[in-house]
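Class, carefully examine what follows:
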Amino acid sequence: MSAISLSMDQNWKQAVEGVVKQIIFHYYQASPSLRSASFILRLINRYWKTLDQHLFDSPVHYYTVLVKTTDHLLHFLQPTVDCFLLFERVEYGAKRMKKSIEIDMAYNDKGKGVVCKFFLETDETFCSRYFSCVVAACRDLGIVLSKVEFYSLLTGERKVFYVDFSHHFY
C-alpha cells in the first residue's frame, strides 16, 4: 500500500478515511504478537500527523474527530484476527458486466468469511448496497460468507448484516 497524498481539495472526511485506512492496513499487516492498544496508538500518532488541520472546521473539530476515531479504533480492531483480504479491490459479475468493490477486511470465522467495512458515519442506503455487492463478490470468489460488519469510527456504532443460505439478509 502506497502512502496517501493529501491534496488541498480533499475534505476532512476523505482525509481521515485515508489515514484510517493506513492505520488499519498496517495494524493487520503486523504480526498478531505485535498488535496491541499501544501499537494502535503508535500508528495513529504516525499517520494522524499527516492530516492538514486546516481541513477541519476548527481545532476543536480536529481533536474531537481524533479522539472519537482513536477510541473506536481501539475498540474495533481485533489482535487475533487473521485477514485473508485487506483493502483489496475485487471484481465480480458476468464478464461483460464486471463490477468491482473494495473489501476493507475479510477474515475466517469458524469456516465462514466475515467482511468488515470501516467508515466514519452510518449510512443505511450505503450499507444495504454494499452488503448486496459484497455477497455477490464473495460468491464469485468462492467465499462462503456468514456476515458483513459495519463499523462507524465517529459514532462507535456497529451494524451486522447476516447472510442466510439463499444470500439474503435479515
User: Anything to note?
Assistant: Residues 124 and 153 are 15 Å apart (CA to CA). The chain has a mean pLDDT of 90. The chain is about 40% helix and 25% strand.
